[in-house]
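User: Predict the complex.
Assistant: Input components as received:
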Amino acid sequence: MKDSESRSYSLREIARRFGGDIAGNPEFEVRRVATLENAGPDCIAFLANTRYLPQLKATRAGAVIVGKAARAATRVPRIVCANPYAYFARVSTLFNPAPGAQPGVHPTAVVAGSARVAVDAEIGPCAVIEGGAEIGAGCVIGAGCCIGEGVVIGAGTRLYANVSIYHGCVVGEHVILHAGVVIGSDGFGLAMEEGRWVKVPQVGCVVIGNDVEIGANTTVDRGALDDTVIEEGVKLDNQIQVGHNVRIGAHTAIAACTGIAGSAKIGRHCRIGGASGIAGHITIADGVEISTYTLITKSIDRPGTYTGAYAFEPHRDWLRNAAQLRHLAELARRVRALEKKSKQPKRSKP
Amino acid sequence: MKDSESRSYSLREIARRFGGDIAGNPEFEVRRVATLENAGPDCIAFLANTRYLPQLKATRAGAVIVGKAARAATRVPRIVCANPYAYFARVSTLFNPAPGAQPGVHPTAVVAGSARVAVDAEIGPCAVIEGGAEIGAGCVIGAGCCIGEGVVIGAGTRLYANVSIYHGCVVGEHVILHAGVVIGSDGFGLAMEEGRWVKVPQVGCVVIGNDVEIGANTTVDRGALDDTVIEEGVKLDNQIQVGHNVRIGAHTAIAACTGIAGSAKIGRHCRIGGASGIAGHITIADGVEISTYTLITKSIDRPGTYTGAYAFEPHRDWLRNAAQLRHLAELARRVRALEKKSKQPKRSKP
Amino acid sequence: MKDSESRSYSLREIARRFGGDIAGNPEFEVRRVATLENAGPDCIAFLANTRYLPQLKATRAGAVIVGKAARAATRVPRIVCANPYAYFARVSTLFNPAPGAQPGVHPTAVVAGSARVAVDAEIGPCAVIEGGAEIGAGCVIGAGCCIGEGVVIGAGTRLYANVSIYHGCVVGEHVILHAGVVIGSDGFGLAMEEGRWVKVPQVGCVVIGNDVEIGANTTVDRGALDDTVIEEGVKLDNQIQVGHNVRIGAHTAIAACTGIAGSAKIGRHCRIGGASGIAGHITIADGVEISTYTLITKSIDRPGTYTGAYAFEPHRDWLRNAAQLRHLAELARRVRALEKKSKQPKRSKP
């Protein structure tokens, strides 16, 4: 699956496409991308973090992409640019383009008569497209996907295997949904009545903007009455849970295993660490960063980084320290008492 | 997908079905349900929390459902009742009834000869029903579902797309399983022997009671020897993990991303917050509430609310404060020493 | 689904296969395995933990497996051995052998012409095997599985329903993948450029060793450039997330809901509790144990048990204590001030 058979590009060709300065031989022909550590002589690698300077020194890569500060750190033919990691992303895409759709509906797919499928879309084996659904130009619907009634999927979107989209949801253009993703399942809407839960019908939908990517087995619930909205350019990692009526602002990235409770509003350009939690009905400003394993229980109205994880330690130490957590308020009270006492004149004691 | 084409009901008709007092015009015709915020003049909305009183004042809804305390808070035609949210759930269900089964087995479904499928059940495209399985009256088995050997599914149960149920499991009546749910996978039973894990066969099953709802991509493991049991009326949100031999008591609700380790017994009428954890082999009493992100490591024998989450703060503050966690036991010791010292007569020092 | 129809084995036959000493009647015929609590007179049960001695006293089991210390704790016919739980695992497997493959490709499966499927492999209904894939001898590919281009699956491996494996991944022999597992989805590789995320192509693969078991709905991302590797004998529970370029050492077991961030290296023979988190780019030594709900943020270079969970308490107490967390650094400063003050000679204050 590696790009061993793709064509080669000279550094000159690469720089013509993506910019940057060339240092060293511009005619060097690159055949593949690789890590500094495992690159061979036909590879281009990159340095995005000075932590890896030793690997730059030791690399067998034929060429590298570096930032301006590292221009002189190697003699390997190189492209010098402002943002080596983004540059590398573009070069890697040049060598590893996303495979295009192979137009046509597989004979084992089940497409309702009232569905509209673009002629150049690819519908995989055993995929199911229900009535009134629309599949845009150049889409790839993977094997075993189930697309509910009236779902609209924009052009150039790719669903990997076994994705489920419930009725009425809307997916933008150039979206990627990984295997096992579920879009539009019922939100957790329940009313308690005489000791039993009464289900609240979930009649909103999910609306996903353009250029969104959603990781494997992530779930996005439909809105209770209004819609759940994921704005353009949002990137969700694997196994994230998005509750009903959540809104995630454009270009926000969220790492794996995070849970977002119902009606939370997350701003644009946020970065949210893995296994974090966002409480329901709160609002998070644009540009907020949340650390891994952090539970956000209140609205955050200004950018910055927020953290709330318990730092690990050897179990024996943890046993002793964590036990004190249950006495913290008491400990604080005792310190106040000591302070008060220490301020009293000592001589008054006979 | 909204309910725009369903019939209308007057407030009088609604109150005749579900009770409550009408204030204002009883002939007002409702066509849809909506939030206070987004309702139009043909909608009925509801107020279940005084926090939203400003939205009640501003609503364009044609009618509202309110509690007794809010009877006079609006002039909009209204139904006054004891439990507005549950009332609203019933009204919303009136306008948005769950779609019924469309009887029949899709030609691409694979139903074993020894399976018994009720004549009015709906078996979706590419669904697989293995030998000896029984599908009850009025069931809907979604596209791509896989129902293992000997599985029994009660009447009126609905499985959305791509649900997998392993052999021998039993699902009650009027159950809802959302897309990607897995029921009856092997529990995590392993014995260590000379540096290698030996698999312990998981030969119990999963038994799910009536009126249970299970959210998307939730997993419920089969028992090791005895069964894993989910009692009637339990509501599980998305991406919950239920270990082998767990028992969840009737009418307990558990929010998303929670993990329940093997052999835990959870009582009836509990409410468990999202991303919480329940340790194995413990027992939780009826009526317990557990907060979001809380790990329960010991049995709880009385009702109440239990919490154990780390409160977030700006990262810089967290760095300073969390570092002290590792010195808490020492800090407590130092405070004790100060207290002891402060009680000694000072004059004894020459 | 219980083993009621399998043949019986005498204690003598069992001990001949698996070793151990027999105390009591060696001709006792065992028909089933069971828990001490629910065993009937034709069952063999086991005692692996002295905590369950009362259940041993009360059991109706016809035979039991016990350790040497418990040899005299019962008069029931018994096998005495060094490791009763592992012994029980083997006996249970004798009574409950994994079902073998039923050779053949189901007529609704879709197997590419260039795929190679062993003649004795079983390919279930609606499974999809793409071009160039290889399915080894005796494999079982469950209903609805999607096996990507060029995937290689070793002999004796079993995939339950609705598993998705992306192109190019390699799965060893005697591996078990439970329903909903996703192998080889794209890692979360993104470069930020002018306020937008640029996707970094994920061109590595996933390589899974022999005798690995992976639980339901667990996801394993493909490597960015090099591969993600799960070594032989690793056991992963349900709903675990394994990021790109992670390496998990042989015979490590990880409980459910754990998240492992990109490029983390986990040693051999580790035991990792449920819902824990491993940060990216760190290394964990062989033989490390990590407690449930613990976030590991730094490399661990020696064996031992590490913990970092917040201990729960009644909500009212938690409110008071957790509030102090935000003042811990200040509290420590105040204690230092008190200590300093208490060391000053008091008499100097005239």
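Chain B touches chain C through 80 residues (CB under 8 Å).
Let me know if you want any component modeled separately.
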